[in-house]
Amino acid sequence: MFQTIPVQPSPDEQAAIDPGSSVQPQASSHLLDDPHEWSSFGRPAHQNPQAPIPEDPTESPVWDSFVVLEGMHCAACALTIEEALKAVPGVEGAEVSAATRRARVVWRHAQVLPSQWMEAVVRAGYHAMPARDAFAREIRQAETRRALWRWLVAGFCMMQVMMYAWPAYSARPGDLSLEMETLLRWASWVISLPVVLFCCGPFFKSALKDISQRRVSMDLPVAIGMLITFVISTLGTFDPSGVFGHEVFFDSLTMFVFFLLTGRWLELRLRDRTAGALEAVMNRLPDSVLRQLPHADAGGAEFERVATRRLRTGDVVRVLAGEAFPADGIIVRGSTHADEALLTGESTPVSRAEGDMVTAGSYNLDSVVDVRVDSVGEGTRFAQIVSLMESASLQKPRLARLADKVARPFLVVVLLAALAAAVWWWPVDHGKAMMVAVAVLIVTCPCALSLATPVAMLTAAGTLARGGVLVRNLQGLEALASVDMLVFDKTGTLTRDGLVLRALTPAVGQDANEMLALAALLARQSMHPASKSLAKAAQEAQLPASPWQLDTVQEVAGSGLDVWVESADKTRRRHLRLGSAAHCAVAELAPEQAGQSVMLAEEIQGHWAPLVQFHFSEDVRAEAAQVIADLRKHGVDVQLLSGDRAAAVQTVAARLGIAQARGDCQPQDKLAAMQAAQAQGHQVAMVGDGLNDGPVLAGAHVSFAFGRAVPLAQSRADFVVLGDSLELVLQSLLLARRTLSVVRQNLGWAAAYNAISIPLALMGWMPAWLAGLGMALSSLLVVANAARLARALPLQVADSNASDPAHLAPRGTVMPLTQGGH
User: Which of the following is catalytic: 133, 219, 251, 489?
Assistant: First the structure.
């Protein structure tokens, strides 16, 4: 029986593993100065992600850290935080994303510590915390709750104020007495106070920060508009006979605050559902885990609960059903099913038993298992995936960088335009002059422009990640959308690793099933790809075991096997060879068959006689032909460049319908061919295995590294395909085209909205409440439009398990493989 001994964690560990802890992240930022905490929210800069974190973190002079930011709402906020961080001595670089509200900070620990550059963020008016902190999700949820409360209060007050304002709109001259009108104004003023003091709090707070630090953000013109509206309406209430006593605008104030908060709350929810997916991935690992005590034996194992970051290679941990595996390792006790969708994009659970590998971040679905840890922390594939997603989420595509550059100058122009409008209308009507200025301030806020590109790009990247494709370079989405030529490598890309037995040619008088079972008996003693294929074919055909037993086995490197077998009663012995025709000293039975073949021969009276010839082909992916046909339908030319033998390349190209194929290519030959296509004006994408295609992947306009075995840290590709289906390349292309279309729609809408709204506001035809509604709807529209990209990938290729006639050999003496095994 297993025995679990709960151990009370230390206060530091308790804070790490208990989300309900009373320790506040801002108050404990100095704890992050401990070098052993640096790996919890970053890694040594310029280090291979597959390398483990050094025992002494100070061995690396520069660290790369990721933090979540509070209090930012726009591109101008992102620029402010970047400038504040870069001004700190020792901070070598900073990237801030307004769409994900995250920052990447590169810092040198000899000059600055995390608490110091986090304090710079606080001085700029914002808050920062480690991206993988347990508090991050709680704080985001609390922010959403506060936004919901402000929206509810604003909605309730708006309805009350509108009820008090309605008589003034509907009454005819003489219907309303002065006392009644004054009473309604005072009632509206009282009801508007919660809106100004509570609901408008974030806008005023952000504006005060801007003024104190002499900067401009998107909240500044909005706050000025709110303040002007409330002040002139208050003056009209207190002094009905004064300059502004003709009309009050409490209804407009409460309406546009309500509309702005509606847009901001919905935008917050949509952001959490799209860009917030990164946080969900990063927090996938458990905070703590049951670790077997060192002195425990296998019969009565005892476990203690420790923080996940304290695991070391060789530890044995117990993973409960429903928990995520905390590290890469091997199951040493128990069996279960695991959800590895994060790593492969496949949602179907996979069976895992004793001796099988499990990966950090995948979920244990069925039962309790014990796992021996092989890799921890940054050495796991999960950590590499998170690192790639973090880097991509902070990248700024070209169009987003352009929007960021124009955001601040545009806001200055907005303030000047509002001032000019007020001056122009002042001689006509003082009250109307101020309300026209308010409308200009609100309606021209460039929120939609700053969100148009990054939200769409990040949503598409999240959709691809869920489907099994990691985006290393966010700019690659824009480049992929314009690709018109796609170059494939062959091995590991169009074909799977290894060979497949497609047919066999038995000698006269020999039974195909008997020969396959006998050959499989020999083949199981070798690791050669052809031997593996023979053993697999016999297993899939469900053939009975061969009656012969192995006596002696000798493998001749590069040639084949030399084996003696004997009967079960040990009365008969046979001398067999499995390998090339030369090794078996026989002629091929079907020399006209193309591709690789293996002979099985027997020595009879001093001479070797062939028993059967096995015909192999490369295991071309079943979906490859359909994918290539669909690529052509979408206007993409397909080429094949491979370092394999020209004959093998031409065979694969003919089966897949690729007209332009070339073999015997060195990496420099592939690069030269691709550069020639680029010189002709083609936008070229390269799909390789990510290992020996480095120069070509780097030289293409956009590139894919294909296959689960790709070392993520070594690949130079823009996209890494984690799944095992070639259709992901096609789906990525189609999604990139949709993404660029959405970006263009968003930018077009933002530009058209401003082009139409600004003249209307300047002419006094747009009241403040309508300006607030327009601003909220414009931001909401671009986010909602981008959210359409969060749907499933755009295409499902036909069943990849469908039979492929090209796998069958020509009829005659050659017997194609069937379910019967011959």
Answer: 489
